Amino acid sequence: MSGRIPYLEVSPQQGAAFFGTPDEGPVVMLNLLRFRERADYSHAPDLEPVGGCTGREAYERYMREMLPLLEASGGAVLFSGTSAPFLIGPTDEVWDHVLLVRQASKAAFLAFASDPESQRITAHRTAAISDSRLLPIRAD
After folding, report:
1. How far is CA 118 from CA 8, 92, 94, 96, in A?
2. Which of 31, 55, 68, 117 is deepest in the core (most CB within 10 A)?
């Protein structure tokens, strides 16, 4: 796994490409997550639990706080689970957690992600993960 670039945030180019295409209804986001051994709250020390926590614990906190906002925006978690090694795919690429999240539309996703409370809570996700992938999926 060494030598690979970690992906933690949406790049401006990828965001523009995603949001610059027509909004054609619901979108499901496939999340692949790799957790830090210890959460890194250096960007938000006021949110770090006393004594620190693992990356997985920080992500669980993120989900607990974010779920009500997600549901209020019309979104839903469709699946959340622990990942096993690929059956077809690179044997050295392992993910700790897999999540499928449905949003009503791109506009709903953007409004949800832009909400100040959502952005504050996202600091737990930032502390939790060492690498991630986010793949938008639309039904045919």
Report:
1. 16, 33, 28, 23
2. 55
